[in-house]
Design goal:
alpha/beta, four-stranded mixed β-sheet, 13 helices
Length: 343
């Protein structure tokens, strides 16, 4: 197996051993890693992408100052720490970590700032966020993280997709309140209750607390329940003759109201009302459906001064739209501070 060596400290007493897997290179727009001494420069980009070992020589002193996780790992009581004390150096395999992202973090920790990219792709930033959370490198990476996020945030998606889930992860890890609220708001309005893992295949690798996902799902379900309950009450009232929307109380008019309402609601998957968590349906789709309902009264089909000026739906659409407007006014994204445990 081919080996690459990256030297972040020529006197480093710690060597990380990572594995590059084919087709897992995550490019940034200007990513130029600090290759260091002994790096194999014969990796022609035209050659087939092959699995190879990546060895990174680093300073244990820098690592223990930057990361509580590495500090604990290198204590006397752990195998890695005992080996370091006994032999003066130690090798630590990190088979699960991405070498590209890890290299950027090592540059930051070893103060090789010129080698740290100022812009990067969303996938690479997501991978870095995973490692920052894993090794508790938040303070060390704070300044660079803000630069990366500021450069990317104008492209935050407005639909529920893999990229949006990445943004929820990034804004949580790097504690960006405004962007976190926006990303969670989009998820509340546009997720479909089928699970985040259906959109993001490796969702279980993201360090997003379960409480955040639960809160997004709960707000989505509560908003949908309110507007669908209003629809149910309107339909039930007509069916049971408990509400008379027709000012003339004509049965044929009530029947046409009910028929056109149910037919249109069915078209937009609003009827029959499914049970919570309303799988496959987003609040945005419900909102659009309510606004687009086609409801006709018998009165509006007749000629005459009174009936010609009558509301086509005898006020039903007004009721539903007013309820929808009220729900949308109170719909908010999550607040980051609500999920941060006080020290």
């Amino acid at each position: 197996m081919k080996t690459q060596t990256q030297v972040f400290d020529p006197d480093g007493d710690l060597t990380f051993i990572l594995t590059h897997h084919p087709n897992t290179v995550i490019e940034s727009r200007d990513f130029t890693p600090e290759l260091g001494l002994g790096f194999d420069l014969n990796l022609d980009s035209k050659e087939p992408d092959e699995e190879h070992e990546v060895r990174m020589q680093v300073s244990s002193k820098h690592l223990t100052l930057a990361s509580p996780v590495f500090k604990a790992m290198l204590r006397h009581s752990f195998r890695e720490g005992a080996g370091l004390r006994e032999f003066g150096s130690v090798e630590i395999p990190l088979p699960e970590d991405n070498p590209d992202a890890f290299s950027i973090l090592m540059n930051i920790i070893h103060a090789k700032n010129k080698a740290v990219p100022r812009h990067m792709s969303l996938p690479l930033l997501t991978t870095i966020a995973i490692l920052v959370d894993k090794y508790e490198l938040h303070e060390s990476t704070d300044l660079f993280a803000n630069t990366w996020i500021d450069a990317l945030k104008t492209s935050m998606p407005e639909t529920f997709c893999k990229q949006l889930i990445s943004w929820i992860c990034i804004t949580w890890v790097f504690r960006r309140p405004a962007e976190f609220t926006w990303a969670s708001f989009v998820a509340i309005k546009q997720s479909t209750g089928l699970g985040f893992e259906t959109v993001y295949e490796d969702f279980d690798t993201l360090p997003i607390p379960g409480e955040i996902i639960e809160a997004i799902n709960m707000q989505r379900e509560q908003a949908m329940e309110k507007i669908l309950e209003c629809l149910r009450i309107v339909v039930h009232g007509i069916q049971e003759s408990k509400s008379h929307h027709c000012p003339a109380h004509r049965q044929e008019c009530e029947a046409l109201l009910l028929g056109t309402l149910l037919r249109s609601a069915s078209k937009f998957k609003l009827w029959p009302i499914m049970e919570s968590p309303y799988p496959g349906l987003s609040f945005k789709e419900v909102s659009y459906g309510i606004g687009a309902l086609y409801i006709k009264s018998f009165c509006s089909q007749e000629r005459g001064v009174y009936y010609a000026t009558a509301d086509d739906s005898h006020g039903i659409k007004t009721i539903l739209k007013a309820e929808l407007k009220e729900i949308e006014m109170h719909l908010r994204g999550l607040q980051l501070k609500d999920f941060i445990n006080p020290l």
